Amino acid sequence: MRILNSIVLIAWIAAFFRTILNLTLIPRLRAAADSTGPLVSVIIPARNEAAAIERTVRAMLAQTYSPLEVLVVDDRSEDATGPILEAMAREDARLRVVAGSEPPAGWLGKPWALQQGSRAARGEILLFVDADILYEPPAVAAAVAHVQRSGAAMVALAPHLIMGSVAERVAMPMLAMALYVFIPTWLSNRTTFARLGIGGGTGNMIRRSDYEAAGGHETLRDAVVDDVGMARLLRRHRCRTVVVRAGELVSVRMYEGGRAIVEGFTKNSFAVFGRSYIWTLAVVALSLIFHVLPYAWAAAGEWLAVATVILITLTRALLFRSLRYPFHYALWAHPAMILMWTWIMLRSMWLTGVRRQLAWRGRSYDAAATRFGGEPR
User: Fold this and answer.
1) d(C-alpha 317, C-alpha 326), whole Å
2) Is the pLDDT of residue 298 over 80?
3) Where are the beta strands (DSSP E) in the chain?
4) Is the pLDDT of residue 285 over 90?
5) How far apart are CA 120 and CA 102, in angstroms?
6) pLDDT, tens digit (0-9, with 9 covering 90-100), for 137-169
7) Which of 82, 96, 207, 288 is the most interior residue, by most CB within 10 Å?
């Protein structure tokens, strides 16, 4: 027990300093003085996005950057997405609506929509964005400036997470903890190691020449996490990809409520671990040992565990204060967060692994025919 407690404490000491390094060394996206440059094509896949699509597109059309075109791929929506887009397209010629077709055999819906959008795009720089993301007016200009200044093939924009319900405030900080606490993202920005590639649906800005040289979304046609897959794909072609802190200019409420969170991440959590039962169960076990058991041990009076809980709380407090998350959740919600994600991983393993069911935006796929994305076939 004492040895295990010591190992857990040492791991959290490392995590604390890694968090400081990430928050210090990952660059912030700042408004740029120059709002002109090469043509940027914003590509947005939209399937049944009537609730969010108008706000997202109008924010893109309000960008200070020019020249700019916005392409929305209407992925055979069954709600009012199409009429909303057509009405906006009549108001602004920079918006083009691409009528999406059903995915061919071997393709998932989102990669196919992005492939269609990239084919129709004319820009030297492509910005792939999900349909529920809000960009402040200087965001695209700032991202272009960072691409040109850094020389990177791709810049991934890490957003501010908007969290409404209690379930969101408990569960969603896991994404930020993965980026700033668990992963050496500062090191990722300084290497081309494929496994450290990071991307996101909140914004992958890519040089078109590098995108095409790497094979584009054709290479990611069966990827359930295509945005991270794109970063890994580019790195496999010896291209640099970097992450920037864009929370002042980009925001998203990814899911509304606990059920949406569980269903949303069920589709890809098992794939994150290579669809391996051994790796998934190992991560579940390690999560309980390093994140939940210290609280039980601390309650039993084990002083090393008390020190670990204090360090976990300090790490979360530092992160939550920096990212402007509801602060009191940093103090008590860590075990609840881990338990919720443990359930998501086990559910994903059962549904997409054992039962091979993958439901995504009203379509069903054989999960065994999919992969995480970006890894060699």
Assistant:
1) 10
2) yes
3) 36-46, 66-74, 95-99, 125-128, 133-135, 154-158, 160-161, 204-207, 241-245, 250-252, 357-360, 363-366
4) yes
5) 17
6) 999 999 999 999 999 999 999 999 999 999 999
7) 207
- In angstroms, the CA 133 to CA 60 distance is 10
Average pLDDT across the chain, whole number: 96
Alpha-carbon dihedral sign for residues 56, 61, 67, 70: positive
If residue 326 lies in a helix (H) or strand (E), which one and from where to where? none
Res 34: pLDDT: 78
Secondary structure class of 169 (helix, strand, coil)? helix
Check: CB of residue 233 under 8 Å from CB of residue 213.
Answer: no
State pLDDT tens for residues 331-367: 999 999 999 999 999 999 999 999 999 988 888 999 9
DSSP string covering 186-227:
HHHTT---GGG----TT-EEEEHHHHHHTTGGGGGTTBSSHH
Q: Which amino acid is at 191?
A: T
Residue with tokens 């300090």: 314
> And the tokens for 94?
């920079």
SS3 288: helix
Token pair 């061919």 is found at: 104
Query: From the CB of residue 187, how many other CB atoms can be counted at a distance below 10 Å?
Result: 14
